Input
Amino acid sequence: MGLSAEQIRESMDALAAVEPAIAAALDRIGYPAPRIRARGYATLVRTILGQQVSVASADAHWRRLNELLGDASDPTRLHGFTDEELRGAGISRQKAGYLRSLAEEVTSGRLNLSALPEDDEDAIAKLVAVKGIGRWSAEVYLLFAEGRTDIWPAGDLAVQIEMGRILGHDARPSEKRVRELAEAFRPHRSALAIFTWHHYGAEADAAPV
Output
């Protein structure tokens, strides 16, 4: 499971103690809520379904896939259905290929989601070896489903934007620069990532209509 509210609070307090800009942002918008997903195959399926579509569309595709398969959280169910049947559930041929690749990795035992490597980079490498799972998807899975404390999805646009805003940059820093900036915030970068998404939402809510 993901980071608890207590873990997020402790990490944010530690970050605020070393970075005044983070302390000011925390005072302004408060602590973020936990973002927790279940560990395992179903969460990665939903991650794939959510690529390049809205949250509402991804949820609809998951519901339709679940209805089609009977239990979309069981990787063995996928093998008995054609791409045409999956398209009927709103799933493109490309995503169907990704889902089949994931199901094969899990059912074969090559990917054991109950025993990913303890080293974060090794765990990311294990996940991105699956067709259709990129670094961002792997990082978000480790953060939300496993609650790893020092995951930093620097390729996320909102993370880049909000790190720039929080630290007072005039322009959005690049992915490379965001990685460099966050080195000073180890081992609390997971909480910081959650805070940047919280900050993004708070800034959007505060914007004039």
